[in-house]
Design brief:
With about 375 residues, the chain is an alpha/beta fold. The chain contains eight helices and nine strands. Helices cover about 45% and strands about 15% of the residues. The strands form three sheets. It has a five-stranded antiparallel β-sheet.
Length: about 375
Amino acid sequence: MVEEIHTARTRRSLAQRSREKGVALILVLWTFAVLSVLAAEFARAMRQEAQSVINFKEKVVGQYTAIAGMNEAILALMTYNGEIEIDSDDDILGDGDDDRNDDDDDDSDNNGGNHKKNRNKNKADEEEEDDRLQTIRQLIEGRGDWVESSFNSQPYEVRVYDETGLIPLNASDLKEDSLFAILENLEYDEALAGDLAAAILDWRDEDDLRRNNGAETDYYEGLDPPYRAKNAPFDAVEELLLVKDVTHEMFYGTDEVPGFVDIFSVLSTRGNITQNAISFEVEQALCGILEDQGEDDDDDRLGAGDGETIEDLKTCIENVGLRARSSDRDGKPNLTTARVEVRVKNDAGRTVSHIAATVRFKGDGFQTYQWYDAVFDDDEGS
């Protein structure tokens, strides 16, 4: 009997220990599970923090690289504006005959070798200077082509739009028929082109008389939020986004159709357009979009061609009721007012900084009209 009691107690003790071990195992497993979750969350937070630091550094470096690029571009424009004329077929710097040392036959082999090294070094320096001046000339032409440069080994891109090569939105010569023709050239249908032209001029004119299909204060006060028609000249091209029927896509453009931001200027009240400074986008607005014409098809760009195609461009300008002029002084481009844009991209091709400034060059200095710390940039379309 005693032995049976002892055996039962032993069994109960073993069962209790087994249960305790099971509970302990479960607690250990739960502890490891909780620790694993905490470790994973900590690792994720650390990765996010590290990526945030990388993104912040990338943004800061990009922003200050863009500002440095802006200063470099403006300095180059001030220095060479109206001063350089570059023909790729000519000797740009007037370096003379490359064979000027070939008559030194009496020199020793060592001296002859030194002369050859010096000539090669001078030629390399001259070619580098040629490329630099070609880049500056491309900027001074003000046609809005991106060119590459770098600051402190950080690459950036810069482009310059000559404001006189854009369509003057505030010009009295830019009438409803002119705007209608421009908008039709951008392939907007007849009804929409008419509505847009009327609404833009209603916003700009001084009266409250609404054009047919236009818009005045009574229309804008019915919007949410309400606002009034300006009834005054545009102070910034971005005001077009407030005008009836103007959409975000129209303003910034698409791969097929240029945006209003790239074709209009608000700084001129005269109907003159500098034809040798007309960008690809403005050319499309003035002459129409050619089927299958890409931005890199330089042979199809009227403003970049011979005398005959330049006359064709002049005809396009006159057909919309404006006038063509040239800013060249003895064949040397001369900027008066320009929009300078600088952008910096990361290794993945995403824009991390894009700034712009509108400046007027006056004598040995310049005056800043507008400054943009950030410019909308569609990486897929830029």
